């Protein structure tokens, strides 16, 4: 329904804009990298954790040299960046395997969960938002608005536990933990292709997406009501256009301009907040990995996780800005 | 009241009452209104805000806001009643039979769709043409409304058009379905006078050429006088007078029409005071002369009070990291003038000519890129903090928009007292008395201080702004389009107050306006601005009688003619 006119890719303004944004993104990542890396130095001595009780001073010195911890701070930071760019985040203190491998193994679970809940949040958020705006004051719209308060006010873990209680314990319809059976496509393991994998996705994705959905819904509703008051909507009515064209062509596209920003940020937080949902549902994703890493002060994993999340946030924000260009012609000229 | 009921009458409104339910009961925005529109005729609907003119337009279209409804009477098209039809039937009628043009072309067009998309969509809806035929028609329409290079223009977005061109697009959109009646709701209010003239001429031509009937809703008597065939005057929801334009304007019968016409500023005669609207209890009394008793009398130094020398202001148009790639827009270009003590100095020009920028530069709100401002011979631009503070204490500003220039969360007494307190001009103990006196003298009453801005009308708010400006007992007042957002009767009040300020308190003023008749009434000398340059500067009388530049002559020529208007009530002419 939305015919997004594609911006001309050769537009010099657009190119300079993208370059500027990419430059800013790199700056953000460097700073996050610094914070992530600082953890190595400031959160205890990893050597203590890695070597057992019966260590010798020689062991410590050897491991220190081996890990490069005897080098000055800037050198260590530069090395860290150099390695990080190449996808090398070091070796997990706890598992003794390369962090990159562990993350890669866990990432599909989190990304699939985030994708499904993001989709649910955006789809139902927009549909219900438009519905409650157009049918303002009706019983159905008021009911949706009231129920949506639950989504805003209940904390994620409580919703998760409630869902588990109702659908797993009492009704025994859906699994209460794990991903179900997965299929490996190369290095990507997917739960989309098996029945149990799909069933396992339902409760966690609802839990994770509910808050974002209600937020998007309320935002869409407010924006839509605002847009419907605009002169160009009145003029569209005065020209005798059909309600359908007015609501879903003229009004919806204008509604989406501000909604896109918030939605972009929300998608970022879906990935970041997956930690809680993954813990409640024992979902084998990076969030659960991170929680376990904290318990064991597994700093390389924590640092890599931090970097991963910030890369995603930055990427989503970049996409949001580009979407702005696509949807709003005023920015293009 | 006359009734025209010819057989080919397009639109007949009979005994129409429109009601809006409110918490305090039924509010009748239009009461028993009647008018007719013939083919090829422009019927003006004039009145002040709240008179119900736009409500009539919305009622005809079936587009009443909220829970408004037609509570009585009928609207008929070619003898068939159209009011009371269901929403699907009304939608088929809209656009197809009756079209509408709104006030602000900037907000009337959807910013996210190209002009072509909006045109073809509407054409296809009504005429059932194919996409290609519709695009073809859209191109013809743009050509007809006078938009050059229509093929390219179709693919552009509304923001790529200028204000006048946008309003042409809006007119093209209203013509898409070949309607029989067009309701134009303040179609030129947001436009410059030159553009206004073109748009009105276009509407006039289209009316004659296509034999459509037009209802032209406006508050501007000049527009009515110049464009309409017949006129209906409304006041507080009621039709007070209706008839051929020349007759109603030249020989008004109703007291309201008379006072409304008398309040219109004329370019050809200067009046000492504006006649106040003396109908329906809208009179307000104010007493500026009383303020003079406590007003400090400072003997002005010899020479001009304000000297503006070579003022130049550039705004960044396109930023870049490389300085040579940056593009600037010169809003004010080497402008110099003096303002003598006690003088009202006017600046006129179209939008974008740099008038407001100059006001802000003199007020010290903008930094100067070049040039300097002198106050009583002392340089105040870029001066030390104490000099600037002294200058700030002596100047005040009144802004155009009485809605956004008052903080809605502050009480009126706080708003009025704030500048004086901030500049440390009056002891805290005396603030209350000073504020009460000011509010009383501008005609609001001391108790107005306890209220919030939203409880006041536009004209009352502008008087709050004046009270705020007077709180510091300034010597120099900058008025930036102080009345352009106000009705003509309210404008008359505000202008009278400003005249009194000059007369009784000896205030010097910089008066900025795009409205030449108002400038004629208010100013001693006038500067004409075009594209940031001061192109002419003369005594007001000289400028109007014998303009030296082609541009000024053009501006004067474009003023809506008020010759038709009755001269009654202008006894005060000087």
TrEMBL record, chain B:
<dbReference type="InterPro" id="IPR003439">
    <property type="entry name" value="ABC_transporter-like_ATP-bd"/>
</dbReference>
<keyword id="KW-0813">Transport</keyword>
<dbReference type="GO" id="GO:0005524">
    <property type="term" value="F:ATP binding"/>
</dbReference>
<feature type="domain" description="ABC transporter">
    <location>
        <begin position="306"/>
        <end position="556"/>
    </location>
</feature>
<dbReference type="GO" id="GO:0005886">
    <property type="term" value="C:plasma membrane"/>
</dbReference>
<keyword id="KW-0067">ATP-binding</keyword>
<protein>
    <submittedName>
        <fullName>ABC transporter ATP-binding protein</fullName>
    </submittedName>
</protein>
<dbReference type="InterPro" id="IPR017871">
    <property type="entry name" value="ABC_transporter-like_CS"/>
</dbReference>
<dbReference type="InterPro" id="IPR050319">
    <property type="entry name" value="ABC_transp_ATP-bind"/>
</dbReference>
<comment type="similarity">
    <text>Belongs to the ABC transporter superfamily.</text>
</comment>
<dbReference type="Pfam" id="PF08352">
    <property type="entry name" value="oligo_HPY"/>
</dbReference>
<keyword id="KW-0547">Nucleotide-binding</keyword>
<dbReference type="GO" id="GO:0016887">
    <property type="term" value="F:ATP hydrolysis activity"/>
</dbReference>
<dbReference type="InterPro" id="IPR013563">
    <property type="entry name" value="Oligopep_ABC_C"/>
</dbReference>
<dbReference type="InterPro" id="IPR027417">
    <property type="entry name" value="P-loop_NTPase"/>
</dbReference>
<dbReference type="InterPro" id="IPR003593">
    <property type="entry name" value="AAA+_ATPase"/>
</dbReference>
<feature type="domain" description="ABC transporter">
    <location>
        <begin position="11"/>
        <end position="261"/>
    </location>
</feature>
<dbReference type="GO" id="GO:0015833">
    <property type="term" value="P:peptide transport"/>
</dbReference>
<dbReference type="GO" id="GO:0055085">
    <property type="term" value="P:transmembrane transport"/>
</dbReference>
<dbReference type="Pfam" id="PF00005">
    <property type="entry name" value="ABC_tran"/>
</dbReference>
């Amino acid at each position: 329904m939305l015919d997004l006119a594609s911006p001309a890719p050769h537009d010099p303004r657009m190119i300079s804009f993208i370059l500027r944004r990419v430059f800013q993104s790199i700056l953000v990542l460097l700073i996050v990298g610094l914070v992530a890396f600082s953890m190595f130095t400031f959160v205890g001595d990893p050597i203590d954790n890695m070597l057992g009780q019966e260590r010798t001073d020689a062991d410590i010195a050897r491991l220190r040299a081996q890990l490069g911890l005897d080098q000055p701070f800037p050198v260590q930071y530069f090395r860290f960046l150099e390695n990080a760019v190449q996808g090398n985040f070091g070796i997990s203190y706890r598992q003794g395997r390369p962090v990159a491998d562990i993350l890669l193994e866990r990432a599909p679970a989190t990304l699939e969960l985030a994708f499904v809940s993001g989709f649910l949040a955006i789809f139902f958020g927009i549909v219900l938002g438009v519905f409650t705006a157009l049918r303002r004051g009706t019983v159905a719209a008021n009911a949706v608005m009231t129920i949506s308060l639950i989504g805003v006010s209940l904390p994620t873990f409580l919703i998760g536990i409630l869902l588990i209680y109702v659908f797993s314990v009492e009704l025994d319809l859906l699994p209460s933990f794990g991903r179900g059976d997965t299929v490996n496509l190369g290095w990507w393991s997917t739960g989309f292709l098996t029945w149990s994998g799909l069933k396992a996705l339902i409760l966690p994705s609802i839990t994770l997406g509910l808050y974002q959905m209600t937020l998007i819904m309320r935002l869409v509703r407010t924006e839509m009501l605002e847009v419907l008051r605009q002169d160009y909507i009145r003029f569209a009515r005065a020209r005798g256009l059909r309600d359908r064209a007015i609501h879903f062509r003229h009004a919806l596209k204008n509604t989406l301009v501000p909604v896109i920003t918030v939605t972009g940020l929300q998608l970022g937080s879906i990935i970041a907040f997956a930690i809680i949902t993954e813990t409640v549902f024992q979902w084998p994703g990076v969030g659960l990995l991170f929680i376990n890493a904290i318990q064991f002060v597994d700093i390389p994993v924590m640092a890599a996780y931090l970097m991963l999340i910030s890369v995603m946030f930055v990427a989503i924000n970049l996409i949001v800005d580009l979407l702005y260009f696509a949807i709003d012609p005023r920015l293009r000229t | 009241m006359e009734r025209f009921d010819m057989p080919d009458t397009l639109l007949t409104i009979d005994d129409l009452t429109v009601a809006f339910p409110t918490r305090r009961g039924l509010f009748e925005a239009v009461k028993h209104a009647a008018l007719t529109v013939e083919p090829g005729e422009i019927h003006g609907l004039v009145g002040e805000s709240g008179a119900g003119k736009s409500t009539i337009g919305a009622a005809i279209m079936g587009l009443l806001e909220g829970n408004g409804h037609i509570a009585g009477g009928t609207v008929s098209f070619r003898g068939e009643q159209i009011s009371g039809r269901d929403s699907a039937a009304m939608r088929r009628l809209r656009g197809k039979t009756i079209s509408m043009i709104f006030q602000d072309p900037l907000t009337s067009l959807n910013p996210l769709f190209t002009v072509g998309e909006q045109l073809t969509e509407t054409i296809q809806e009504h005429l059932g043409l194919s996409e290609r035929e519709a695009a073809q028609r859209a191109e013809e329409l743009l050509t007809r409304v006078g938009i050059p290079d229509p093929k390219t223009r179709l693919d552009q977005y509304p923001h790529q058009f200028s204000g006048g061109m946008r309003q042409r697009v809006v007119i093209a959109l209203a013509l898409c379905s070949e309607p029989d009646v067009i309701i134009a709701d303040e179609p030129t209010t947001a436009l410059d006078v030159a553009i206004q003239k073109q748009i009105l001429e276009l509407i006039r031509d289209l009316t004659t050429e296509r034999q459509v009937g037009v209802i032209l809703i406006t508050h501007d008597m000049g527009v009515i006088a110049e464009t309409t065939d017949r006129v209906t005057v409304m006041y507080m929801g009621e039709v007070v007078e209706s008839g051929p334009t020349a007759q109603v304007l030249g020989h008004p019968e109703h007291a309201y029409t008379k006072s409304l016409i008398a309040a219109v500023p004329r370019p050809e005669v200067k009046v000492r005071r504006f006649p106040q609207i003396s109908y329906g209890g809208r009179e307000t009394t104010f007493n500026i002369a009383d303020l003079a008793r406590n007003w400090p009398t400072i003997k002005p130094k010899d020479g001009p009070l304000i000297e503006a020398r070579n003022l130049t202001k550039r705004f960044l148009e396109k930023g870049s990291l490389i300085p040579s790639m940056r593009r600037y827009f010169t809003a004010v270009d080497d402008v110099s003038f003096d303002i003598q003590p006690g003088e009202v100095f006017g600046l006129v020009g179209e939008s974008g000519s740099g008038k407001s920028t100059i006001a802000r530069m003199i007020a010290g709100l903008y930094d100067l890129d070049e040039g300097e401002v002198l106050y009583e011979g002392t340089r105040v631009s870029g001066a030390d903090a104490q000099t600037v503070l002294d200058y700030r204490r002596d100047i005040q500003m009144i802004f155009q928009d009485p809605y956004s220039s008052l903080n809605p969360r502050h009480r009126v007494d706080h708003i009025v007292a704030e500048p004086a307190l901030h500049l440390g001009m009056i002891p805290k103990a005396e603030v209350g008395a000073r504020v009460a006196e000011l509010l009383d003298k501008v005609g609001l009453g001391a108790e107005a201080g306890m209220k919030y801005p939203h409880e006041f009308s536009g004209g009352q708010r502008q008087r709050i702004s004046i009270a705020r400006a007077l709180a510091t007992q300034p010597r120099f007042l900058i008025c930036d389009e102080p009345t352009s957002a106000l009705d003509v009767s309210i404008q008359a009040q505000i202008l009278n107050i400003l005249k009194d300020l000059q007369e009784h308190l000896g205030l010097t003023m910089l008066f900025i306006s795009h409205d030449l008749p108002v400038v004629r009434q208010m100013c001693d000398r006038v500067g004409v601005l075009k594209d940031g340059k001061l192109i002419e500067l003369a005594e007001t009388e000289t400028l109007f009688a014998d303009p030296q530049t082609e541009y000024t002559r053009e501006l004067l020529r474009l003023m809506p003619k008020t010759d038709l208007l009755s001269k009654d009530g202008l006894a005060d002419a000087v």
